[in-house]
Amino acid sequence: MTQLENGSVPDSYPQLGGIVADLSNLRRASQQRRYRNGRPPELPSRDATIEIIDGLVASLYPRHFGPPELTIASTDGFVLYTLDKSLRALQEQIRRELQLAANGSDDGHTDFRPRAHEITSAFAAALPEVRALLDTDIRAAYEGDPAAKSLDEIVFSYPGLAAILRYRLAHRLYGLGAPTLARLVSEVAHSATGIDIHPGAEIGEGFFIDHGTGVVIGETAVIGKNVRLYQAVTLGAKRFELDENGALVKGGARHPIIEDDVVIYAGATVLGRITIGRGSVIGGNVWLTHSVPPGSNITQAKPRSESFDDGGGI
Amino acid sequence: MTQLENGSVPDSYPQLGGIVADLSNLRRASQQRRYRNGRPPELPSRDATIEIIDGLVASLYPRHFGPPELTIASTDGFVLYTLDKSLRALQEQIRRELQLAANGSDDGHTDFRPRAHEITSAFAAALPEVRALLDTDIRAAYEGDPAAKSLDEIVFSYPGLAAILRYRLAHRLYGLGAPTLARLVSEVAHSATGIDIHPGAEIGEGFFIDHGTGVVIGETAVIGKNVRLYQAVTLGAKRFELDENGALVKGGARHPIIEDDVVIYAGATVLGRITIGRGSVIGGNVWLTHSVPPGSNITQAKPRSESFDDGGGI
Amino acid sequence: MTQLENGSVPDSYPQLGGIVADLSNLRRASQQRRYRNGRPPELPSRDATIEIIDGLVASLYPRHFGPPELTIASTDGFVLYTLDKSLRALQEQIRRELQLAANGSDDGHTDFRPRAHEITSAFAAALPEVRALLDTDIRAAYEGDPAAKSLDEIVFSYPGLAAILRYRLAHRLYGLGAPTLARLVSEVAHSATGIDIHPGAEIGEGFFIDHGTGVVIGETAVIGKNVRLYQAVTLGAKRFELDENGALVKGGARHPIIEDDVVIYAGATVLGRITIGRGSVIGGNVWLTHSVPPGSNITQAKPRSESFDDGGGI
Amino acid sequence: MTQLENGSVPDSYPQLGGIVADLSNLRRASQQRRYRNGRPPELPSRDATIEIIDGLVASLYPRHFGPPELTIASTDGFVLYTLDKSLRALQEQIRRELQLAANGSDDGHTDFRPRAHEITSAFAAALPEVRALLDTDIRAAYEGDPAAKSLDEIVFSYPGLAAILRYRLAHRLYGLGAPTLARLVSEVAHSATGIDIHPGAEIGEGFFIDHGTGVVIGETAVIGKNVRLYQAVTLGAKRFELDENGALVKGGARHPIIEDDVVIYAGATVLGRITIGRGSVIGGNVWLTHSVPPGSNITQAKPRSESFDDGGGI
Amino acid sequence: MTQLENGSVPDSYPQLGGIVADLSNLRRASQQRRYRNGRPPELPSRDATIEIIDGLVASLYPRHFGPPELTIASTDGFVLYTLDKSLRALQEQIRRELQLAANGSDDGHTDFRPRAHEITSAFAAALPEVRALLDTDIRAAYEGDPAAKSLDEIVFSYPGLAAILRYRLAHRLYGLGAPTLARLVSEVAHSATGIDIHPGAEIGEGFFIDHGTGVVIGETAVIGKNVRLYQAVTLGAKRFELDENGALVKGGARHPIIEDDVVIYAGATVLGRITIGRGSVIGGNVWLTHSVPPGSNITQAKPRSESFDDGGGI
Amino acid sequence: MTQLENGSVPDSYPQLGGIVADLSNLRRASQQRRYRNGRPPELPSRDATIEIIDGLVASLYPRHFGPPELTIASTDGFVLYTLDKSLRALQEQIRRELQLAANGSDDGHTDFRPRAHEITSAFAAALPEVRALLDTDIRAAYEGDPAAKSLDEIVFSYPGLAAILRYRLAHRLYGLGAPTLARLVSEVAHSATGIDIHPGAEIGEGFFIDHGTGVVIGETAVIGKNVRLYQAVTLGAKRFELDENGALVKGGARHPIIEDDVVIYAGATVLGRITIGRGSVIGGNVWLTHSVPPGSNITQAKPRSESFDDGGGI
Predict the structure, then answer these.
(1) Distance between CA atoms of C286 and F51, rounded to whole angstroms?
(2) Which pLDDT value is given to residue B103?
(3) Within 13 Å, how many C-alpha atoms sit on residue E276's CB side?
(4) Which of E125, E132, E313 sits opposite D265 (nearest CB)?
């Protein structure tokens, strides 16, 4: 709270009117370029999306993420009420995405609500399957981490599970035709956990990420069952291909296929549409750009020990 | 707020009842597997734990993390009130952890409050020592970072200090028999800073982490005095040993010992129960799996410069 | 809420008085060392700074970060009101930084408000330019990421843009003489995105960071136009130089110069006052401590494939 | 937060399912009676209405009811933004009222938004006139109350002004065809001040109510300029007339006309379509059911002093 | 936020320590007088009680007082969840009241939870009946008020209904043995509406209070069916009887009996255990201390009109 | 949240700019009239004042109005911290009142902080005495109300006590030279309880108001010890005297003196500087404008019972 007493203290910004006008002009110019034929469409709301996802997460695991006073008797009531509320709110966000996507090719009069309702209904129908998949992930974490004390602990404190939970929801949205919203969901998880899983990736059951900070999994990655990753693993694309005009070639499978039961240790970088064969182990910090057969063990070159010359301070 | 007008807009999810029932069955099955003999125990609460830790942090550094209107006269009052409130709330969370841990081996009628009170009291008694240790960490940051302008700036803006502060609290909880709660505290810090310090690690005075994103310090790591780490340093275990049945061998010292006055630059990976001798300097991105004597300087192999072939896009 | 019934439950901490006194003594001792001549100065407030930055961000991109109900008609009103409020609050925080910085060399009676007002006014005047620069960054993200669906999506969901937005604000504060506040702003962005850009760095238009977790850009780095970075890239200093007394040599250009149109892939580490020539491409995980000419392509040494010996578990 | 430990404590309500079903049946029966042809219409929202009125009040008197940090420069911005937001929200509430009112006579497919927009626009256009009228009320309070210290004090602390302010807004809504919303506004003021002014009443400039608790002013009351009332004054109807079927005769002028410059002291009851002539003074607790000419002075019969027989305890 | 700069501004209260000690002594003395044998019992919480009542009200009328996004499908879920939560919280408040009441006569070791559970269960079982009664009250308001536009309007805006709703809940608590909590509920309604109905009063179906400010209904009042009251009506006791020691004689029927179909106009005062016969009409401001037969019409003495002598200003 | 789809829905208010300009002109004109020589002074803040009073009330009765988790050990800490915070905030509000009061007679450069500090310090010093007085009021309520179950119940649920508590604080502010703030405090209590006690009134120990709605106590009233009032009692002035110019004669004792041990029943109106002698009982609805000797019993004239002619509907 500004407390400005006495005339002698400077406390106004006479140029403010001009700044506001300049910003207004910049906005207007930018919008005119993009939305020539009318006013800008409504955007999906980050805050609303976070609230929706929190509602869905609480519906899937009410004991861990619902309100503290839930009892066995009231849990179904809570889930029914919360799911219904979250799905309606989701439908509105999907409608916005559809309208935003139609911008330019559309006359602005299409009612996207019926399509948004279809997507939302299909999403809702998939929730029990999502929960069943997540239960395999929780079990995988319990079995893969010597420090895990209980399944419950994993649900309420492991960042890997937090990221996978949101990924599995985002992946359904992505598949049903709401990729922008799906991306928003995965970015919210990315911000909280440092784990960046593109909602387009395909990931099988029993997936476990330990520590997780810096993990990046690309859009067309395919991950089998019971795969385990550590922090800072990248499943990325090789450098992007450009077409004859120097523009990016979009789409196309460009990220790795990780078969069942693979373990990839911290800091490994796996790039391009290569296949890591079933049961392989990729060592920490390995840089890998070619396929390896099932059962491979890949490790990094040994470092040198030598005299001081440079370091890594900032 | 959903605004649904006119009958023509689809806005209900007739299958919702079935979805809620499916989710209910999944929950019930999962709980029955784990809590055969009764209803599930209460879980420690993430929100409550965050509030407790914020209260403890404000009690340790009221000028930096307490309410803005504190004065010298009122600070002790604030600390007394806040500590008392935070300790009581902590005691309840510890009680829940004890009860959760006893699940299965316990008939469900033990009153864990007396034990929770003992742990909480011991934790409280250690707070002045924790604050004294943290003061050495703050000083280390000031001396180690050429950009640091004041001790105060370090306290209110350095992520390394934020992580160490919570680690030092979590470490006490871990040592006193509340490892799940300790883990929750460290995960909260991990989410905010990208620094993942296991509460079981032993860390001496004057510890400094610069930048910090991606740092991982394992459960049995031992770190001496005046050690300095940069971002993305891992102090990890080698691949887990399995017993004859293929199950993880749990426990046992499996992370490095870092002696006094060591500096480890960004991205270095130090694995296994090895010892980095006093005063050593480990260069950036180094991969180290064997002990080095005091005063060592370790750097990475030189990179090649060569023609374009692959990259690291996603 | 603690519910303690009946006398048999332990619920008080008799030693609390002593703990509070110990903490009080530690605080007093610490403050006496630093503020011998009076009471400690007010600190900049992290919460207030976050609110200020949120207000500025909403003023620059009201459609994306302002309240949901804004219309074309009311947006200028919102921007005027929000900017005015945010600037006043910023001025107060700048005043606190100036006073904190003067501590020791000052008699405690200087009124820093006029100087804080000058800085704030200059900062305000730069906002349209900041917005224009950010528009180039948004366009660069759109052109650089094959997954980007619209400019709007980048603004509301890309962590790279979130970090650059706050960096560009912090950089102005830094240049105008409020480096501590600038640092606080960049640490808030760091916590949310895992991207750590020092506000002192100079960064040209059209800057794009993809994924971003673990990126570190040092204080004296200079980055040209249309540069693209991926996650975990470090633009750091070599090990710090010490003077004859073993103290850090502060100041001086010690971070890389990245010329226009350079791309640096994930995990690359570029250290020291070296120059990466225009249009160069630095491959993933490369470790680079010497300058390279324009148009260079640098890649990492190939990894070995070999039998199992160690890994990277924690 | 309920903390229920151990199986011995009763903490569930087995009959809850049946209660919920009973309540559900009661709701369904009630709605079926009233909304035979479909689902119930949306109701105007009390919370939304309170927020709208608070926004309008802050737009009319931003220095007193706006946020604390407003400056001359930013006030117009605040008013523009707040008015626009409040009017849009008001339009939606008016739409709901129109739809609720049309229930039964309507097929449910009418779009009431255009009409709601017209009403809202007309309401907006009247705001400067409302503010001008309120300024006369404030002045009247200042001149009428020997205890008033400043005009500002009246605005921020007098309950009479708070009630009149909301009445003047509600009266416009009433006149424009939103009587239910108008009533809601006046009930919110009634709850806060104990002053119950029906939005249908006509009240001239310079109106002042002192203390105010218990004042009731009926729907068809007409009050001239510069009238002053004290607490517990009723301007009511005589007993309602019934038609030949015993049903209430609705509508029709049934409350008093109070001419200019009248003062009515505390507790007076004035009933029926009578006229209190200009400049009259009605004494405290007077019961008046016939017209009085201009300049009248009416007082109550004298009480008796006598021995104790009964009282007024509860 | 106090912003105190420079040493010259007075901003501390040196005598604060002494004031705190004085207040502490006053508290301790007061508590010692009352709770000689131990520490003071927990008090029922006003905030918790308000939240409980809001939850119960929303459970009874979810369309009017529940969250805005409820649908037919989700309403039962909401009611189940909200009722369960509210009942548990209520049980805890009842436990506190029982313990508070037992203070002195109790050794402090009784577990009042089983009894609190019984009361709460009985209260829950009565809710459908309460709702059915309230529906008659709503209909009575609709039929009794010429200004009422719909049943919905009455539910969300009439203060009389708000007070009766809370009275009917409080009355059940009172009857089940939680009179202090019941009183708290009725005082919360009193504060919001100015209507003070003691929870002990017996009130039949179809009860309507118009305007309502100042209505007081005493503990032993008995009100029949279809009774209508206006503002400022008192149904009180005669002056309290004292026993031979001058102490109040507590208990005993001391308030009026109002038979079916009675109307009592504004400001009427009805005192003592008298009976107002069925179908009577009591005029405004009447003072009545004796029974009247069915069908009576009672009005006030006529006022005098005379010259100015005194008034009612404050 | 407005959701406006499709171009056909009206959703903007083109005349908004003009309305904002009109309101701006009205504001400017009004301020120019009053603050010719500069910008308007800051106003005391209603929200801040409410928070201050809540803090003071919690400091006086921490067990009843403090946070739920207080223990004997932490209460003094809470009181110290809360008092200090509340007093500082109070000092700022007092400063504003002083500056507002000086407007016109002052050059705008006076620093009112020292005087505000003096007043605040004196106010603080009086708090123990205020608490001691309130304890007598609580006891009086307990003894005077046959329905009171415990002293605690009176503190947390009786509106009379809530009003007296705030009156006793406001009265100190009034006496120390902050009458506007004092008035604000009493209006906040008035809004919550319907009891309007002017902070200038002098009220002795053991004061009890039952029910309370509609009670009005004027500025110069003097009330002795152990006085009891019921709802709707007015202790007012006769009609205001005018001077030869027709302006109100301000100041001067114009409200009643109520001696010790008087009881005044509901609805009684006592006007002018008269004296109600010690131990008198004033019956309900009595209208009294002359002094009565000690021990008087005053009751109202008997009502007539007669045929129906008019009523009190609205």
Answers:
(1) 58
(2) 72
(3) 35
(4) E313
Give the pLDDT confidence of D132-146 residue by residue, as tens digits. Answer: 999 999 999 999 887
Domain count, chain A: 2
pLDDT of residue C6: 41
Considering the domain architecture, whether residues B88 and B147 belong to the same structural domain is answered as yes
Give DSSP secondary structure letters for B246-281: S-B---S--S-EE-TT-EE-TT-EEESS-EE-TT-E
Evaluate whether B182 touches B170 at the Cβ level (below 8 Å).
Answer: yes
Is D32 a domain residue?
A: no
Q: Please state the pTM of the whole predicted model.
A: 0.91
Provide the token pair at C233: 């890239």
ipTM of this predicted structure: 0.89
First vs last Cα of chain E: how many Å apart? 37
Q: Is B257 in contact with B237 (CB distance < 8 Å)?
A: no
pLDDT, mean over chain D: 87
pLDDT band, residue B2 (cuts 50/70/90): very low
Query: Is the confidence at residue B37, as pLDDT, over 80?
Result: no
CB contacts under 8 A, D 40-79 vs A, are: 68-69, 71-74, 77
Distance between CA atoms of E199 and E187, rounded to whole angstroms? 10
Q: Are strands B263-264 and D208-209 parallel, antiparallel or unpaired?
A: unpaired
Helix or strand holding residue F52 (H, E): helix F46-60
Specify the CATH number for the domain of residue E83.
1.10.3130.10
Name the residue with tokens 């925080």.
C93
CB F11 within 8 A of CB C72: no
CB proximity A10 to F under 8 Å: no
| Shared-domain flag, residues F220 and F149 | no
- The string over A220-231, giving b where at least 16 C-beta atoms fall within 10 Å of a residue's C-beta and e elsewhere, is bbbbbbbbbbbb
Closest CA to F231 of C220, E5, E195, B11: E195
Rounded distance, CA C81 to CA D80, Å?
9
| Res. E286: pLDDT tops 90 | no
Indicate whether A235 and A281 sit together in one domain.
Answer: yes
| C23, part of any domain | no
Chains that touch F (3 or more CB pairs under 8 A): A, B, C, D, E
Query: Quick one: closest CA in C to D73, which residue?
Result: C84
Residue in B with minimal Cα distance to D108: B6
Nearest CA in chain B to E68: B1
Nearest CA in chain A to E1: A1
Higher pLDDT: A2 or E143? It is E143
Distances B233 to A228, A288, B152, C297 between C-alpha atoms, Å: 20, 21, 26, 27
Indicate if the pLDDT at residue A184 is higher than 70. yes
The residue assigned the tokens 């820093």 is: C112
A204-242: pLDDT as tens digits: 999 999 999 999 999 999 999 999 999 999 999 887 666
Instruction: For residue F229, give its domain range.
Output: 201-302
**Interchain pair D69, A20: CB under 8 A:** no
Count CB pairs under 8 A between chains C and F.
26
Q: Which residues 260-289 of chain F have a CB within 8 Å of chain E?
A: 265-267, 269, 271-272, 281, 284-285, 289
Cα separation of E280 and E292, whole Å?
8
Residues C224 and C167 in one domain: no
Residues F178 and F101 in one domain: yes
Q: Which residue has the tokens 């009982």?
A: F281
